[in-house]
Amino acid sequence: MDKKSGKSADINLFLIGILQGAGLKSYPVILSTRNNGKIVSDYPFDHYYNYVIAYTDLGNGRILSDATTPLLGFNELPVRCINDKGMLIKEKEHEWVSIYNHVSSYDKSIFEIELSEDLSKTKVTILKSLNGMSAYSYKTKYDDKETKLRRYFKNQGLENVKEIRTKDYEKTDKPYFITAEAEGTVDQLMNKIVIRPFYNFPISRNPFTEEKRSYDIDLVYTTNTVFESKVKIPKGYKVLELPKTMTINNDLIKLNCTSKIEGDQAVFNYSYTLKKSKYSPKDYSEIKRTFAILVSKFNPQLVLEPVEN
């Protein structure tokens, strides 16, 4: 305790003791991490269990916690722990409990784009706002390091990335913000200018390529993904055609794609939320089709052409 370190079980059992000392109904849940395989309910042998988390009964709900992940909120679990179910251990009884995050994550990207005077490139300002598992993923992958974040932005199709700033890296009760300024490429087609308002940030490849699937589609956690972009239309040019509006709201996904002209700007508002973190094999064909729509719709192009005199 003096060293402020310990095994994950020790840390989480210590957390349970603190919560019980505060008068809360808190108990251990033993589980199998994702890389250890799933627990078979009919044969729950000891070797399946390799991790302990805290379960707190609030009367009208529950909280599952892992005190070894300070960059996650108190009511959120890291990916390694989200593996179907675990065994809730009480003094005189035990029971199976489902293991999942109750909080949906949020990943929002906002772009402001303006063409250079010679129309050969774009000046781009980007703001990313993240919370939940989306924030945790960025925090652990890029460590709030400028060099790593610059490489990330370059991989999304941006150049000369500078002025990278972050906010609230260590806070779990607030969104994690990342901002940057950069330059983007412009495609010239005859006398037309082609811009991708979201660059390479949206999904670009369908991960589901099999014809059929006999096991669950496990997305681990739900995320609300948002892309917003404002592209300033240069003088002497107009928008050739805006992408068509699309709205879907079914049992699998909520999706919205809209674009419009506001003054001298083309404005794009695209968002989607997959409503469940896990889908059964019978949903596979629809999930595959849904991701094909995401790839197709969330990579729009803005074509500008000269205004005729």
What does the secondary structure layout of this molecule look like, with pairings?
Blueprint: H1 8-21, E1 25-31, E2 51-57, E3 62-65, E4 85-89, E5 94-98, E6 105-115, E7 121-131, H2 132-142, H3 146-155, E8 158-167, E9 176-185, E10 187-189, E11 192-195, E12 217-218, E13 223-232, E14 237-241, E15 246-249, E16 253-262, E17 265-274, E18 278-279, H4 284-297, E19 302-306
Parallel strand pairs: 6-13
Antiparallel strand pairs: 1-2, 1-4, 2-3, 4-5, 6-7, 7-9, 8-9, 10-11, 11-19, 12-18, 13-17, 14-19, 15-16, 16-17
C-alpha Rg, in Å? 24 Å
Neighbour order of strands in the largest sheet: 8-9-7-6-13-17-16-15
Series of H and E elements: HEEEEEEEHHEEEEEEEEEEEHE
| CATH second-level architecture of the largest domain | Sandwich
Alpha plus pi helix count: 4
**Which of globular, elongated, flat, extended, rod-shaped describes the shape?**
elongated
Structural class: alpha+beta
The count of DSSP E runs of length 2 or more, i.e. the number of strands, is 19
Share of residues in helices: 10-25%
- How many domains? The number is 2
Low-confidence stretches: none
**Beta-strand percentage range:** 35-45%
Tell me the major beta sheet.
Answer: 8 strands, mixed
The CATH class of the largest domain is identified as Mainly Beta
Q: Return the average pLDDT rounded to an integer.
A: 93
N-to-C span:
78 Å
